[in-house]
Structure formats: C-alpha cells, structure tokens
Design goal:
- The protein is an alpha/beta fold.
- 33% of the residues lie in helices and 19% in strands.
- The strands form two sheets. The chain has a four-stranded antiparallel sheet, with helices on both faces.
- Helix 7 (198-205) packs across helix 8 (207-214).
Length: 216
C-alpha cells in the first residue's frame, strides 16, 4: 500500500481551515465539550482543536462539529470532525460520530511525537485518548481504530525500546493492540479496566493514576 501526501495547495487550504475553526472554538459548544472531557485549554491550543461555526466553502457538511487537525512538519494534512451532540450517533440513520473528508486515508495522529528523543511511546485509539495521554505527560500517538493501523505504520515505531498500546477496556479495545503486536515484538499492552477508555480512566482516577496504569 502506498500513500500520496496532500499537495501544497491542499495543505494550505487545510491550514486555513484549521486556523479558522480554532479561532471559532472559544465560547463554543465544542469548548464546553472539551471541558467536560477533562481536556485543558492548553491542550486544545496545542492540538489546534476547533469548532466549525462558520464553515469555509465546501465544508458546510461539517457545521457544528469539533475539528481535529492532523499536522506534520509540512502543515495540516487532514482534518477529522467529531459530533459533539448529546445523543447516540449509532441510533441515527446515516449519522457518524466521526467524519473524514472525501479521499482522506488513515493517518497517525500526533505524528510529531515520533520526532522526540524518547525511548518509549504509547499508542492510543482515537484522538481524544491521545490528547489525554499527552496532557498527562505520556508521549503518545493515535490511530482511529484497529482497522486504521496500516502495515506502513510499523516502520515508524521501530527503534523504540518499548511501544505501549493503551487499550480500551473491552474486547474491541484489544484489536488494536493485537494488530500492533503482530509485527512488533517490542510492543506491550496496558488495558484500561471496567470498559473504560483512556479519557474516561483519566477523568475517574486522575493523571497520576493514568501514568501508573500506562507505566510511564
């Protein structure tokens, strides 16, 4: 499988979109949502999280969603959008919790972590868990589920003494850990208890407990 990077024009548009939606975050429903999830304003700023209040042309379908930019050294290479309404997205026909732009393929979230001089990293399922781990002092990257862990990603995590998958506390949570461990002997798994994900564990037990649970 090969991956084609976005064009310079595409990155420039996504940079503009990310900046626009970040400027619309303050005082928005998305800001309140992030607060409820225990994510700080500093984290929201660091990860350039935003809210689509007034969408750019072509982005009308994302109005009212949380904007989650994917950034590398070139700039913003993708934006994923999350529903923040207080309902079960699965119960609504043709309604997804997360939305990608057409043609966007799976990417590693917070990939700049891989440039840090650290011996160990963590891998989380989803952006919110990745931000939560980072906020707690854990160098973390994320992917949007086991089905989005691509073989090419294995090359990016070689060279670490240990790669720790912070798995959700259910059977589905172990699928990502299994996908990573299949090709990486230096991979270990720390599963959250009682059906919790990383963010829920953090909010119930605090950042120090998460550090201890994750082994960092």
């Amino acid at each position: 499988m090969t991956f084609s990077p976005p064009s310079k024009q595409r990155i420039a548009f996504l940079d503009q979109a990310a900046a626009t939606y970040q400027n619309q975050l303050e005082g928005s429903p998305a800001a309140e949502y992030l607060k409820k999830r225990g994510l700080s304003q500093d984290s929201a700023q660091s990860f350039r999280l935003g809210y689509v209040a007034n969408p750019l042309s072509g982005h009308e379908r994302y109005a009212g969603l949380l904007a989650i930019p994917y950034t590398n050294r070139q700039g913003t290479v993708a934006i994923r959008y999350r529903c923040i309404s207080d309902h079960d997205c699965k119960e609504i026909d043709k309604h997804s919790k997360y939305t990608r732009e057409p043609g966007d393929d799976a990417k590693i979230y917070n990939i700049l972590t891989l440039t840090l001089p650290v011996p160990r990293i963590a891998i989380c399922e989803g952006e919110m868990d990745t931000i939560t781990a980072w906020q707690s002092g854990i160098p973390a990257i994320g992917v949007a589920g086991a089905q989005n862990w691509k073989p090419i990603f294995n090359r990016l995590i070689r060279g670490y003494s240990e790669v720790v998958t912070l798995a959700d506390g259910d059977d589905a949570g172990l699928k990502l850990a299994d996908a990573i461990r299949e090709k990486n002997e230096h991979s270990t798994t720390r599963q959250m208890p009682n059906g919790l994900d990383v963010n829920q564990y953090y909010n119930e037990h605090g950042h120090q407990a998460l550090l201890e649970k994750a082994g960092f």
